[in-house]
Amino acid sequence: MAAFARSAPCWVDVQLPDLEAGKRFYGELFGWTFRTGEGPYADAFSDGKLVAALAAKQDGRMPTAWGIYFATDDIAASVARIREAGGQVITEPVRAGRAGVLAQAADPGGAVFGLWQAGDREGFQKQNEPGSFCWTEVHTRRKDRVDPFYEKVFGFQGTDLEASGPDAARTGPDDSPPVGFRMWSPAGTEPGPDTAVGGRSVITDAFPAELPSYFLSYFAVEDCNRTAGNAVRLGGRISAPPFDIPYGRMAVLQDDQGAVFAVLQPPVSENGAE
């Protein structure tokens, strides 16, 4: 049995101008260790478990950004559904050695994501724990086209929330109220927060018109405030200062090369457990 259900987020990587600088930044921020492969990339490990990869950009025109990949057991069929649903295939399926097969695409709003059909590498070996991936969401201005796209391509079942989800508490720069948030649950599950694997947020007019649609991926941390402070100390920036949401305490950060990501400190229950 595959380690990841079909359409579940299974991998993240970041494209950086300076790979060694990225290793220093994330190594100190998250405590990651690295193993360099034959190509211009480095696998990242937390407690000895695979959590992400850092890659040196081969083309300066590529964005400095974190990318998210969704699991598929038939990448050709997934690519066909993307086209049928109005998306754009950026990179046709290509084999990554014995590790698996990948493709890249964009939804109707322009947000880029990846597909991963596992070979020897399933994806994350650790998630939802400090130092590892815990959530992703697409930010878009075209929810009326994007929502049915992901439901058709991945079979997601949506739950609309007015003030929930890891991004719902965020406001625009003018303190405008949060907009509706949609959580995605895999096909065959009961839709809701307990089964959600990702979500959709809306980019409102409070943000600059030139801001493109994008995926924001989250990493779990033990202390959100401390992590945000450490990011600045390491040369990064805080895009959204730490604040509380129903699912803990979060912040949106940039690394020292401009790649944006979020961190989430899970809430502590009354018995002290997260």
TrEMBL record:
Q: Which Pfam families match?
A: Glyoxalase
SUPFAM superfamilies in UniProt? Glyoxalase/Bleomycin resistance protein/Dihydroxybiphenyl dioxygenase
Ranges where the VOC domain occurs: 8-118, 132-266
What CDD domains does its record include?
SgaA_N_like (cd07247)
Identify this protein by name.
Answer: VOC family protein
